[in-house]
Amino acid sequence: MKEEQVQDPNELKDEAVNETLAADEAEAAAENNADIEEASDGGEAAKRLQELAEEAQARTLRVQADFDNFRRRTQKEKEELAQYATSKLVTELLPVLDNFERALVTAPGSAESEAFTKGINMIFRQLEGVLKSEGLTAMETVGQPFNPEYHQAIMQVESEEHEEGIVTEEVQKGYLLKDKVLRPAMVKVSM
To answer: How many whole angstroms separate alpha carbon 22 and alpha carbon 41?
Structure first.
């Protein structure tokens, strides 16, 4: 006869427990592998987050530097505007100053007009003083080398007392407002 193999119920339990344990071990191994992969993905994610943080920090620093530059530039523009705010008015007053000078040069020398000339001279000096207090200064040109930034040559003349390129005569005064040329001087230059 055939022997029948009959399994003990305890053996069946042991096999079931073993299968369950094997399944649990396989599941745990799979979780460990997932954790390891996740950790390596987490490392990459952490690196990516670090790169993003560094990029954001660099962007923030650039924006802050741009803002600081903007603030300095606008402050400088405000200062320049305040410094040269009177330039338009002073420029418009220069022909008046020129006319006063011409009037004083051509004033008659009679005793009757002496008081009138003296009054005009006082007004001229007062106007000149106010303009000087705003920073207006006349340029010294005669005997200086010709400089196109400060002089406007209207004529070249032969001169034995000056070498070539020297201003020999001033036709119209030039003026500086603080350190900026307000009106170049019209001059004759030796050749």
So the answer is: 28
Q: Please, which residues have CB within 8 angstroms of residue 114's CB and are 6 or more apart in sequence?
A: none
Instruction: Give the N- to C-terminal CA distance of the chain in Å, as an integer.
Output: 144
- Rounded to two decimals, the pTM is 0.56
| Token pair recorded at residue 75 | 């402050």
What does pLDDT average to in each consecutive run of 10 residues of the chain (191 residues)?
A: 49 56 58 50 82 93 94 91 81 90 82 84 92 90 90 89 88 89 91 81
Note whether 181 and 138 are within 8 A (CB).
no
Say if CB 186 and CB 171 are below 8 A apart.
Answer: yes
Rounded to whole angstroms, the Cα distance separating 160 from 73 reads 50
